[in-house]
Specification:
The chain is of the alpha/beta class and 263 residues long. The chain has two domains: 125 residues, Udp-n-acetylmuramoylalanyl-d-glutamate--2,6- Diaminopimelate Ligase, Chain: A, domain 1, CATH 3.40.1390.30; 114 residues, NIF3 (NGG1p interacting factor 3)-like (Udp-n-acetylmuramoylalanyl-d-glutamate--2,6- Diaminopimelate Ligase, Chain: A, domain 1, 3-Layer(aba) Sandwich). It contains ten helices and 13 strands. Strand 10, helix 7 and strand 11 form a beta-alpha-beta unit.
């Protein structure tokens, strides 16, 4: 049984509720016809030229991304801007685009639960406390206390990164807070949770100073690196949900280039 875009949107809304998105965010169907039949779904972190090309080659009818294809307001819809140019190209090819952003960060089983699981954290809670597994950030404990450099090597291994940035505060690693993507706005949440180590991305120099001042180890595992793992998880969950409901659409995962590379 084929599924329509509007039916897929409904299922995604049940899996990753829009109510969990931040007020400033833009989630949901970004581009496309509600009555279009969907036979192939391509999941990706970003709506990019390489992802759109793969979608075209794979005959995908919709791209489901984490980062919104449309984030800031658009005053001119032309090909002079690369973002709107890509959207025009997707529209020309009749490829819809759906995005689940901060709601996928916050939902149980989303970005931060996947990250916590990969790092083998135990007794995982949300930043809001044990009564809620919704919301930004997770905190848990390692089975054994670790040296920060050993833990950094583990992060590189499980996230398939060539490097991470380590800001040691002189503490052994045991209780770890995680926030995939750009999580320095939640440093105080990590500190208040009692974590000795915080893993996130997009750390700037003054962010590092702030963490040191608050006596918490900080590891920048990159924005992309901390979020990419959720794409496979989302694709698996979506494929299972569609299969259970009798839909025959294929769910595929895009291959995305690591943007930040050491040379």
């Amino acid at each position: 049984m084929n599924i329509l875009v509007k039916e897929l949107v409904k299922i995604m809304g049940e899996m990753v509720p829009a109510r969990l998105a931040e007020d400033w965010d833009n989630v949901g169907l970004q581009l496309g016809r509600n009555e279009k039949e969907v036979r192939v779904i391509l999941c990706a972190l970003d709506f990019s030229a390489e992802v759109l090309e793969q979608a075209s080659q794979l005959h995908a009818d919709i791209i489901v991304t984490h980062h919104p294809a449309i984030f800031r307001s658009i005053k001119q819809f032309t090909d002079r801007d690369w973002r709107t140019g890509l959207l025009l190209e997707a529209a020309r090819k009749d490829i819809a685009v759906y995005s689940a952003h901060t709601n996928l960060d916050s939902v149980a089983g989303g970005v931060n639960d996947v990250l916590a699981n990969l790092l083998e954290l135990q007794n995982v809670e949300g930043f809001a406390g044990e009564d809620s597994m919704e919301g930004i950030g997770r905190v848990g404990v390692l089975k054994e206390i670790s040296d920060i450099n050993v833990f950094a090597d583990k992060i590189k291994s499980v996230l398939k990164l060539k490097h991470v940035t380590v800001i040691p505060a002189g503490r052994p690693v045991h209780k770890v807070a995680v926030c995939g993507g750009s999580g320095m706005d939640f440093l105080d949440c990590a500190v208040q949770s009692g974590a000795d180590t915080y893993v996130t991305g997009d750390v700037k120099f003054h962010d590092a100073q702030e963490a040191l001042g608050k006596h918490i180890n900080l590891i920048d595992a990159t924005h992309q690196g901390t979020e990419l793992p959720v794409v496979n998880e989302l694709a698996d969950r979506l494929a299972l949900r569609l299969s259970r409901e009798g839909y025959t659409a294929k769910v595929l995962v895009a291959k995305e280039t690591q943007l930040l590379q050491t040379v």
